[in-house]
C-alpha cells in the first residue's frame, strides 16, 4: 500500500511516497481504510525529531521508514477480537499518533469514535488531536465554568479555532480572540465575540476568567493584566518549536513567571480519551463545532503541506486526501488563507 514516509529526521524534503506492507491489527486494534488525514504541528515535530529531547523516546535515529500522520478518518476494514462497539464498514475518526498518511492504518479501540454519515471524512479527520487539546485545555486544565469570559490567544490555528467554538459549547458567556485581522471574519463566523488583530497591536478588552494561549508570544505580565481576580491561564503550545526543549522551554519560563507574579497557570497536553472523541463526534454531527478545513492535496503533496504548516500561517486545518477520487468538503466550501 502507499504511504508518506521518512527514513531519517529532517525537513519536508526527506518525505517520500513509498510502498509499504499493510499493517496487521492487534486484538485491541481496528484496521481502517483511510479516506482523509489532517496535519498537526505534532507531525513536523515528529519528522524533524524536535525538540531534540523527544528523541529519547522516539529514537536517536530513524532506523526504519516511519509513516507520518496522527489524525485520520475512514472506514473500518477489520476489527480486533478485543474491540467492541464498532463493526466492519463503520465510519470512524481516530488519533493514531503516527501512520495516518497511508492507505490503511491501525488504531486502538479507545482512540477512535464512530462518525455519522452526515460528517464528511475530511472534516472528521481534522478533529481528533486539535479537538482533544482544545476540549481538555478548557474543561480540565482551565476549569471553565458556564458564564465565564474566555480569551483564545492564537485563535485561528488548528487548536485555537476549535477552542473558540468549544468554549461556547461549554457555556462561556463571551469568547474573544487574538489573531491576524485577515482571519477575523472566519473567527467571528465561528462564534468569537471580538477579534484583536495582533498585527496592528490591538489589545483584547478584558477582564477574562480564562485565557487559553496556543502560541505563547505574550508576556505573563501582559496576560495578568487581562485577567479577573482568580483568573487562569492555560498554555497549550508555543511558536518556539525547535531546539533542545522546543515549546517546553516557553512553558517552563511561564511556570516560573506565574509563580513570581502569583498567577494561576497550567500547561495542557492532549490525552487520548474515547469518551472525549465520542463527544467531539457528537458535536460534529449536531453542528456545534465545525473545523475549518482546506484540502492540501494527496499523499504526493504532503511535503508541501508540511512546509506550509511549519511556516505558521495556516488557518484551521490542512487535509490530505488519502483515498483517490474522494469528494472533499474543503474544495467546495473553501477556507481562510492564513493564521497566526
Give a nutshell description of this structure.
The protein is α/β, with parallel strands linked by helices and 340 residues long.
How would you summarize the topology of this molecule?
Layout: E1 2-6, E2 16-19, E3 29-38, H1 41-48, H2 55-58, E4 66-67, E5 71-79, E6 91-95, E7 104-108, E8 112-114, H3 121-125, H4 128-141, E9 149-153, H5 158-169, E10 174-179, H6 184-189, E11 194-197, E12 208-213, H7 220-224, E13 227-235, H8 247-261, E14 264-267, H9 274-286, E15 293-295, H10 302-311, E16 317-321, H11 329-333
Parallel strand pairs: 9-10, 9-12, 10-11, 12-13, 13-14, 15-16
Antiparallel strand pairs: 1-2, 1-4, 3-5, 3-7, 3-16, 5-6, 6-8
Helix pairs in contact: 4-5
What can you tell me about this protein's structure?
With about 350 residues, the chain is α/β, with parallel strands linked by helices. It folds into 2 domains: about 1-125 and about 290-335, Alpha-Beta Complex (Quinone Oxidoreductase, Chain A, domain 1), CATH 3.90.180.10; about 130-265, Rossmann fold (3-Layer(aba) Sandwich), CATH 3.40.50.720. The protein is about 30% helix and about 25% strand. It contains 11 helices and 16 strands. The protein has helices at about 40-50, 55-60, 120-125, 130-140, 160-170, 185-190, 220-225, 245-260, 275-285, 300-310, 330-335; strands spanning about 1-5, 15-20, 30-40, 65, 70-80, 90-95, 105-110, 110-115, 150-155, 175-180, 195, 210-215, 225-235, 265, 295, 315-320. Strands 3, 5, 6, 7, 8, 15 and 16 form a 7-stranded mixed β-sheet that branches. Strand 9, helix 5 (about 160-170) and strand 10 (about 175-180) form a beta-alpha-beta unit. Helix 4 crosses helix 5 (about 160-170). The longest helix is centred in the last third of the chain and has 15 residues, at about 245-260. The chain is globular, with a radius of gyration of 19 Å. The two termini are about 35 Å apart. Residues about 330-340 have low confidence and may be disordered.
